[in-house]
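Hello again, I could really use a second opinion on something today. I've been staring at a protein lately and its backbone has me curious. Can you walk me through what the tokens say about the fold? Take your time with it, there's no hurry, and the full record follows here:
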Amino acid sequence: MKEIILSADGESFLYSVPDHVADNLHEYCVEFCNVWLRPGNKDAEHLFLNNVACYNEHDFIEYLNK
């Protein structure tokens, strides 16, 4: 496990993630935004308000855990 620091325009949080996630963090971020965080994805529908995605670092970790 490796540690990463995540923040969504506020306080920073330290998370332990598997090595392959930390080593490929950019790819996971791109997939989160471009693939997973889409209207119609039932796992992400709670993050949309009036068709606008509202999320933070905790939501990204939730995505990684799925």
Observations:
- The first strand starts at residue 2 and ends at 7.
- The two ends are 17 Å apart (CA to CA).
- Residues 21 and 28 are 7 Å apart (CA to CA).
- The longest helix spans residues 25-36.
